[in-house]
Amino acid sequence: MMRSRMPACTRTTAKSCTWKSGSCRPWPAARPLFTWRSLPGPPSCGPGVGGRSLAKHHDSIPGQRRTERSSGMLIPIDQIVIPQGRHRKHLGDVQALASSIAQVGLLHPLVVSPDHRLIAGARRLAALQSLGRTEAPVTVVTNLTDAAAWLRAERDENTCRLDLAPSEAVAIGLELERLERQAAKERQAAAGPEEGRGCKRTGSGKFPEPVKGQARDKAGQAVGMSGKTYAKAKAVVEAATRDPERCRQLIEEMDRTGNVDRAYKRLKTLQEQEALAAAAAALPPAQERFQLHHGDFAEVSRALPDASVDVIITDPPYPKEYLPLYGQLAQVAGRLLKPGGALLVMVGQSYLPDILAAMTPHLAYRWTLAYLTPGGQAPQIWDRRVNTFWKPVLWFTSGDREHDWIGDVIPSTVNDNDKRFHPWGQSESGMGRLVERCSKPGQVVLDPFLGGGTTGVAAVRLQRRFIGIDCDPQALATARTRIALAAQEASHE
């Protein structure tokens, strides 16, 4: 930033000064409005203090007069605009602050935008008004970086400061973001046509524009928050603005306790509930929520559109001769899954290293869940001399995407190894928990090794859309009957 071009000041007396190009009236010595200390970071504050000057932003702004002791400006108080619905809700003990100003002067000017919109200083403004002042010292900031420097210095030095409630901090942050957007447009206009859209360079051509996360971090720092905390508080405030009836209590609790994380978590819970309700409402009738296909899964799946499935939950055969199926499954899943979609495949322990080696070239391995099979019906693996009471469920994803937290143990009911509908069948209790934990209502669930149809039964009952594939026509007929009955039950609930 360039230094101010204002002509030098020649001090004539302790109570007046004369500019070489004119004159300016100082603030009354009997009740100083503004005294400067050496501040860590903000622009130059007066004679003998190093640093940058903001004067260049002020030179062309009407209605402002430069003060004697700083590069700040005096403007009429009635020209200051407080944005509606923003900033301080509770001003605290304004009289104590006014008394401090009357005794030792104002440590920090108000912070305003070039159009005199108040960014920070509502309490100081009220205190000046209570003292009968008609003018206020201001610092004009035109971008987020300068505003952050001034507000940080103010926080560090002002002992009469009343901490901002989170929603008040967000109000200031939103004003700073507005300033930054305006400054970005000005930089883009100044860059000229040769550095317009599609060019990485902006402004001077040397530095890129700050990315969204950087602007968020700067706004948060300016109001005393981390960037992530500021973003969470902002989300709560914006939700309360959109839907005050549902979210007003969140913002009230956040301001009362100062706990931004808790308010944000409750907001996310509300939003998830709304999304689930909307997804359930958009579902077709239960009898139309599933489709079953006969044939080899690799062939049948070619008719399904790319990126059309949310979750694949399946239980392929375990014997060694079926190992090639796992690599094919991973390839099919890589095409069918939506970005961030999941494949959960139940496997035996005997050939686990081979299965992982076949699948990981096509999908990202995320975790292994433990599907519990408690009770006296535990399978005996004779060649390994093991009684097993659980099955690994390998969790793969298509690409990297943030998921909700889940537990990695899936219990099934004791002695519920249900083989009534297929010799390799799983229990409805366990598969129901797996479907519920790893998918959401309204999502498309695919089982390419359908067997007796237990995955489909669970999916339809839990308001998911379902696609099943199996090469055994008899097993497919059994599955169709079971899933249709489950759909009929779901339609009456």
Question: How far is the N terminus from the C terminus?
Answer: 68 Å
The number of distinct structural domains comes to 3
The unreliable regions are 1-63, 65-71, 196-210
Compute the CA-based radius of gyration: 33 Å
Word description of this protein:
The N and C termini lie far apart (68 Å). The protein has three domains: 9-162, Conserved hypothetical protein from pyrococcus furiosus pfu- 392566-001, ParB domain; 179-281, no CATH class; 286-492, Rossmann fold (3-Layer(aba) Sandwich), CATH 3.40.50.150. It has 15 helices and 18 strands. The chain has an eight-stranded mixed sheet, sandwiched between helices. A five-stranded mixed sheet has the order 4-5-8-6-7, sandwiched between helices. The protein is an alpha/beta fold. A hairpin with a 6-residue loop joins strand 4 (65-66) and strand 5 (73-76). 39% of the residues lie in helices and 17% in strands.
